[in-house]
Amino acid sequence: MPGILTFALHYEGAINKNSQGAVSEAAKLSQQLGTECHAVVVGEGISDEAASSLGKFGATKVFRVEAPEGLAQPVVDAMAHLFEANGYDYALFGGGLLGFEVGAGLAARLHAGVTMEVTQVNVVDGKLEAERPILGDSSISTSKYKSRGIIIGRLNAFEIAESGGGAAEVEDVQVTLSGHAQKAKMLQRGEQRGADVNIEDASILVAGGRGLGKAEGFQLCEELATALGGAVAATRAVVDAGWYPYAAQIGQTGKTVAPKLYLAAGISGAIQHKVGMQNSENIVAINKDANAPIFEFSDLGIIGDLNKILPKLTEAVKAKKGS
Amino acid sequence: MKIAVLVKEVPDAAVTKRIDPSTGRMDRSGEKNLNPYDTHAIEAAMQIKEGGAVQVDEVVAVTMGPETAVRALHKAVSLGADRSVHLTDPSLSGSDVAATGYALAKVLEAESPDLVLLGQQSDDGECYTIGAVVAEHLGMPSLTQVIAMEVGGDGVKCERQAEYGYDTVQVDFPAVISVGDAINEPRYPSLKAIMGAKKKPLDTKAAGDVGIEADKVGESGSQVSCGDFKAPPQKAGGEIIEDEDTNETVEKIVSWLDERKLI
User: Which of A191, A237, A282 sits opposite B262 (nearest CB)?
Assistant: First the structure.
């Protein structure tokens, strides 16, 4: 009996890590519910290998739909079709751009309940309940579903677990796209912008946010990072604004890091950023706003003007190292 | 063309937010403000209107919420919207995301805009989702987290960031687009615009006026219920230094780092 349907996002033949996490989580929950976990992949010419690889994470069947890739609405069509055909109780998504869009669209289509930013899913009396931090992570609420439930995870909330399963059975499904799903067209997918920066291997990161004031503000971060022997990272806001390369981005759609030291300069600490760096061993934050959320999860917080503090800190670190 | 902008009143970021334990809903009393992300959506609408690539006849701000939500509309028109629509009805209270999106879609259906804009997330709760719900009910294409738009006669070219890089997507009108905060720097309203805001036309609609079916909204029409609130596991509060004498502050930081062998 099928229970949970998941969506797996892919790019150039590789399944997205969050999607692997979502499939792992759905497989674990299905086992507790006594049902099965199925997955759907949507795109142009997805290989048998990529599709069946989801079996490793516990999907017992993978549906492959030939449709435009990287867009949400064709996936909503595909999943709604599979819900009709197979009668799933739940859909589960990893935290990512498309997960939010597909989950919300599917909830509207199926008249189902939807919860986003979920960090934990529990089986209670044979049903799924989703826990979600709210109000800037100051409280956790539990969602219960009247009928079908759509659960959208927070980034990295679902651990990738290889359940020992082999290749999953792949079934090709024909889906007729709805009118509006044909009104958006991908012109270019996955364009890389800016220089390639490797921040995942650095044990010390100096990260900059909007509080730097302008692109040139990153020079202060670079000087400090050099003095500390680390690398420079950035928030999404400043990457989108073109101040720093995309490859250095931490958070929701960027990279997840856990260095020995994460020094955040001019970063408010929004959830989307926090999920990408909260497992760092030591978090130091410099921000002029005493109410910035980052102070709630930093080990050392400095309330002050980074333009004054960073240059002097760089000098002091150099002096210390030289001594 | 006609642009509708969805806006929302949210608790002021500086005010502590809380859940009313008796109802399990957010306590929405206290200081309120226009959702900061929505100001980017209004700014985007104004830039399209002023940009000259297409003829924009009207920018309409739309909100759903209690009586006090008119303040969000006043702010929206002070930022440039030509008029506003306020959907308010006791039956809508307690609606979940899906029900709220349905109700907003019914208002928009009556307005039949060519482009619906909204902020990608609200400061007080639902992230990235409302646009997709609205679009599904309207049968329109949609895209969220858009950081650049180029409007043409029959559609809009959008850029956004995905997990693997940047996507560029052409979306045909009518469409629902939610924008990220990197898309623009919202303007500040002039004093004159603030003073004149209350004089711009404001329609108040009840659920029945736009054909909202009662069993699809409110608590009873919502398919998800939230409750059992609990506190998250607390991380021990970190040390805080207020920078008064920067040399002293820096000394403290260096010794803190040194103690942990980070230098």
Answer: A282
Q: How many domains does chain A have?
A: 2
Residue-range domains of chain B with CATH: 2-221 (3.40.50.620)
Tell me: do A9 and A114 sit in the same domain: yes
Q: What pLDDT score was predicted for residue B26?
A: 65
Asked if A8 and A114 sit in the same domain, the reply is yes
Residues 22-41 of chain B with CB under 8 A from chain A are: 24, 26
A297/A174 same-domain check: no
A198 domain-assigned: no
Tell me whether residues A11 and B157 touch, CB distance under 8 A.
no
Residues of chain B with pLDDT under 70: 12-31, 123-127, 234-236
pLDDT of A125 strictly over 70:
yes
Q: Is B204 within 8 Å of B84 (Cβ atoms)? A: no
Q: Which residues contact B188 (CB under 8 A, 6 or more apart)?
A: none
Shared domain check, A172 and A26 = yes
Q: Are residues A134 and A243 in the same domain?
A: no
Give the CATH number, domain containing residue A217. Answer: 3.40.50.1220
Sign of CA dihedral B121, B102, A102, A27: positive
Is residue A147 a part of any domain in this protein? yes
Q: Which residue range forms the structural domain that includes residue A122?
A: 2-182
| CATH code, domain with A13 | 3.40.50.620
Q: Do A303 and B163 touch (CB under 8 A)?
A: no
Of B141, B147, B167, which is closest to A180 when you measure between CB atoms?
B141
How is residue B17 written in tokens? 């937010």
Name every chain B residue with its beta carbon within 8 A of the beta carbon of A246: 161, 165-166
From A100, A133, A138, residue closest to B128, measured CB to CB? A100
Q: Are strands A139-145 and B224-230 parallel, antiparallel or unpaired?
A: antiparallel
A139 and A254 both lie in a single domain: no
- How sure is the predictor about A254, in pLDDT bands with cuts at 50, 70 and 90? confident
**Is B166 close to A190, i.e. CB distance below 8 A?**
yes
Q: Are residues A160 and A213 in the same domain?
A: no
Chain A residues with CB under 8 Å of B142 CB are: 72-73, 101, 105, 184
Q: How many CB atoms lie within 10 A of CB A119?
A: 18
What is the rounded CA–CA span in Å between residue A41 and residue B26?
37
Other beta carbons less than 10 A from residue A291's beta carbon: 12
Q: CB-CB: which of A184, A297, A308 is closest to B143? A: A184
* Chain B hits for A316, Cβ within 8 Å: 250-251, 253-254
Query: Quick one: pLDDT at residue A155?
Result: 79
Q: Tally A–B CB contacts below 8 A.
A: 282
Instruction: Write out chain B residues lying below 8 Å of A134, CB-based.
Output: 19, 125
Q: Are residues A35 and A86 in the same domain?
A: yes
- Provide the 3-class DSSP secondary structure of residue A233: strand
Closest residue by Cα to residue A101 from B130, B102, B166: B130
pLDDT digits (tens, 9 = 90+) for B48-69: 999 999 999 999 999 999 999 9
